[in-house]
C-alpha cells in the first residue's frame, strides 16, 4: 500500500530529497517555468524541530543557489514555531529570509488557517521592513482579505492570491464558490493595478483569462505578474 500511495503522490510532490526537488525544478525550467519549493510540514510545537526546519531551509537555499535553478521557496510559519510563539517564529523566519536575501532568492510565506492570519501578516510586514525578498499568500475566501490586501499594498509586500483550502466557519469566510470567486476577482484587479509583483495562484481558467485580459487592457507588463499553480494539477 505504501508503494501505491507513493506512486500516486509522485505526481504532486517534487521529490523526497532536496536534490530530487531541484532536479524536477530544472526540468520545469527548461519549459520556461520558474518554481517555488516547499519543505512540507506544519503545526510544529517542539522548538528543536522548528530549528531543524530552519536548518533544512538554509541548506535548501544554498543548494538552489549552487544548482543555478530558477527557484524561490515557500515556508509555513507554524513549521517554524508559530504555535510556540510569534516571536520565536519571527526569529526563525528572519534566519531563513536573511540567508535567502544574501543569495538573491525570494521567500513566500504560505497562509494557513484563519487563526494564524493576523500573526502571519504581522510577522511578514515586520520582516519585510528589513528584507524586501519576502511575500505572503492571501486567501480570497476570507472576509478580512480585502483589508489585508490594502495593508500589504501599502507596505509594498508581494501577495500570492489564492482561494483558500482550510475549513473555516461562515463568520470568517465566504462559503459559496461564487462569493469566493467574486472576491478573488476583485482582489486580483486591485493587486494587478497597485500591487508589488503579485502572484495569481489558481487553476481556474476563467480567472486566469480574466487576469490576462485585465492586465492587457491596463498596460500591465507580463513580467510584473506571475501565474502560479500546484505541481501535478492541470
Would you kindly provide a brief summary of this structure?
This protein is of the alpha/beta class. The chain is built from 8 helices and 7 strands. A 7-stranded parallel sheet has the order 1-2-3-4-5-6-7, with helices on one face.
What does this structure look like?
With 234 residues, this protein is an alpha/beta fold. Helix content is 48%, strand content 12%. It is built from eight helices and seven strands. Helix 8 links the parallel strand 6 and strand 7.
Helical element count?
8
Low-confidence stretches: 4-9
Helix share of residues? 40-55%
Largest sheet: 7 strands, parallel
Task: Outline the secondary-structure elements.
Layout: H1 2-9, H2 18-29, E1 35-38, H3 47-67, E2 71-75, H4 86-103, E3 107-109, H5 117-128, E4 134-139, H6 145-155, E5 158-162, H7 177-194, E6 199-201, H8 205-217, E7 226-228
Parallel strand pairs: 1-2, 2-3, 3-4, 4-5, 5-6, 6-7
Amino acid at each position: 500500500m505504501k508503494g501505491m500511495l507513493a506512486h500516486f503522490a509522485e505526481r504532486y510532490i517534487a521529490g523526497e530529497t532536496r536534490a530530487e526537488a531541484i532536479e524536477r525544478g530544472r526540468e520545469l525550467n527548461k519549459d520556461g517555468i520558474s518554481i517555488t519549493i516547499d519543505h512540507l510540514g506544519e503545526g510544529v510545537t517542539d522548538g528543536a524541530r522548528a530549528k531543524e526546519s530552519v536548518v533544512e531551509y538554509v541548506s535548501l537555499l544554498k543548494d538552489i543557489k549552487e544548482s543555478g535553478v530558477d527557484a524561490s521557496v515557500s515556508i509555513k510559519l507554524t513549521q517554524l514555531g508559530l504555535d510556540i510563539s510569534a516571536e520565536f517564529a519571527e526569529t526563525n523566519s528572519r534566519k531563513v529570509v536573511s540567508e535567502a536575501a544574501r543569495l538573491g532568492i525570494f521567500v513566500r510565506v504560505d497562509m494557513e488557517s484563519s487563526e494564524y492570519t493576523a500573526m502571519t501578516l504581522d510577522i511578514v510586514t515586520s520582516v519585510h521592513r528589513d528584507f524586501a525578498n519576502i511575500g505572503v499568500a492571501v486567501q480570497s475566501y476570507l472576509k478580512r482579505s480585502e483589508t489585508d490586501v490594502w495593508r500589504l499594498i501599502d507596505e509594498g509586500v508581494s501577495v500570492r492570491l489564492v482561494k483558500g483550502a482550510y475549513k473555516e466557519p461562515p463568520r470568517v469566510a465566504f462559503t459559496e464558490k461564487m462569493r469566493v470567486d467574486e472576491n478573488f476577482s476583485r482582489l486580483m484587479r486591485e493587486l494587478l493595478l497597485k500591487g508589488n509583483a503579485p502572484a495569481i495562484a489558481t487553476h481556474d481558467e476563467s480567472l486566469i483569462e480574466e487576469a490576462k485580459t485585465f492586465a492587457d487592457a491596463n498596460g500591465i507588463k507580463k513580467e510584473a505578474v506571475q501565474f502560479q499553480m500546484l505541481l501535478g494539477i492541470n
